[in-house]
Write a structure and sequence with these properties.
- With 134 residues, the chain is an alpha+beta fold.
- It contains five helices and four strands; from the N terminus they run αααββααββ.
- The chain is globular and about 40 Å long.
- The N and C termini lie far apart (46 Å).
Amino acid sequence: MQNNEQSEHVYFINQLYRDFILPQILGDDDDAILYWAGKRVARKYDLASYEDVNSFFATAEFGTLTKIKEKRATIIFELSGQTVIDRLNSDSHEFSLEAGIVAEAMQKQNGRITECDVNIDEKKQKVQLIAQFD
């Protein structure tokens, strides 16, 4: 299997599970459950920094994670790339898993309680993950 075919295969599997099967199983609670699952994923794979999360997202083909702005109590990340565009074009606006991963990793990095919100910019076809510290 060539690299492009392998990439399409990984995207298909991700889409099948994340955008079809899990919402059917989890129902209305899918965003909250996926958020907490993301936090658990970050703990399992010991993601404790922006670099760790960036590498993990690349491996999992979640998209390209870029740190956009950092303030005293907030870090804004941008998630972009073909995977994000494809998900938005297929009407999948669920990025809670990614938000949970970022929240847990930034909490480990900063030692402060952290929550992460999702802001989707459909016009630019990018997703902002906004980590806010306690």
